[in-house]
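Re: that backbone. Tokens:
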């Protein structure tokens, strides 16, 4: 099993989630979304995006 984690910019995460960049930034500030600080800014992991998309399909809010 190959567990390769990809990190996405806030812009990419917003596009994948179908929300605005401001919504993703706000969710990071309120700790609804976990992000990792890299040299070039904050990044959201592919596993975090999968969690958010899974909760959205189950009726949660992303």
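Recovered sequence:
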């Amino acid at each position: 099993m190959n567990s390769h984690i990809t990190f996405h910019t806030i812009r990419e995460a917003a596009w994948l989630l179908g929300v605005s960049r401001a919504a993703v930034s706000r969710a990071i500030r309120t700790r609804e979304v976990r992000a990792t600080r890299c040299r070039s800014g904050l990044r959201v992991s592919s596993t975090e995006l999968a969690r958010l998309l899974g909760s959205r399909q189950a009726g949660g809010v992303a």
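Strands lie at 7-8, 36-38, 41-45. The chain has three helices and three strands.
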